[in-house]
Design brief:
Structural class: alpha+beta
Oligomer: single chain
Shape: globular
Strand order of the largest sheet: 9-10-11-12-13-1-4-5-6-7-8-14
Largest sheet: 12 strands, mixed
Helix content: 10-25%
CATH architecture: Clam
Length: 246
């Protein structure tokens, strides 16, 4: 999963109230503007993203990849559907053990974020939910991002339960602890967000994106949802390739 996708995706699925004994299927529409980076043009993309949340487990489907967190098994599965492979990561994640010696400290210094979340009294209707506005700002030596988030307390998802799961995914990203701490200030599930991200290390490349939740459905997840497909081959986890979306 690319860093830009992980950061944008992380803002689109913040949740709010009641997981016990149920699976929830969350469908959202994701858009990313076209941009130029390192001499290459990236066209605009539009994708449907699906998140499943169950009892101490979660699955996120994004394009040709899926990420599964299985708390009871203490495993995270990174699944590549293009080549029918998957990799396992032990949780809680020990980022230092996944990188060459010294690289974790270097990445942490570059990706240390200052994060602020500011609540507003402004509200609006997003689909069937009444949502309140929050403004998120993130800055580091490598990048900055400004986002407008619309969170609703009218959804059936539990924020605390969700953060336990999603924090494991974000622990693969250096510097994300401060973002996750600030996000806990948000009351409700983010049903819509618009973000603008500037990547300084890519020559001030700016990327705009948006995400809107289309539905939240209480439904039993299909068999095999919270694990890799039986016919996929296991590979060793390569942190750098995964972060580059390979």
């Amino acid at each position: 999963m690319r860093l830009d996708r992980v950061l944008v995706f992380s803002l689109a699925i913040l949740l709010s109230a009641g997981l016990a004994g149920a699976d929830y299927k969350i469908v959202q529409q994701h858009h990313q503007d076209g941009f130029s980076m390192m001499g290459q043009n990236q066209p605009p993309t539009d994708e449907e993203h699906v998140t499943w949340i169950g009892d101490r487990k979660m699955r996120m489907d994004q394009g040709s990849s899926s990420t599964v967190v299985a708390m009871d098994a203490k495993k995270m599965f990174i699944i590549n559907h293009d080549d029918k492979t998957f990799a396992e990561v032990d949780i809680p994640v020990d980022l230092e053990s996944l990188l060459p010696p010294g690289m974790a400290e270097q990445m942490m210094s570059m990706m240390k974020f200052d994060v602020t979340v500011t609540a507003s009294d402004e509200t609006r209707k997003v689909g069937e939910w009444t949502a309140k506005r929050y403004d998120l700002k993130m800055t580091s030596a490598m990048m900055s991002m400004n986002s407008v988030l619309w969170a609703s307390t009218e959804t059936p998802i539990d924020t605390a339960e969700y953060f336990d799961l999603f924090s494991e995914v974000m622990s693969l990203q250096p510097g994300m602890e401060s973002m996750m701490e600030q996000m806990r200030q948000i009351d409700g599930y983010v049903v819509s967000q618009e973000a603008t991200m500037s990547m300084k290390f890519m020559g001030e490349t700016t990327v705009g994106s948006s995400d809107v939740v289309k539905s939240i459905e209480k439904i039993d997840a299909p068999a095999g949802t919270y694990g890799p497909p039986a016919d996929y081959a296991r590979e060793d986890f390569d942190y750098m390739e995964t972060m580059q979306g390979k």
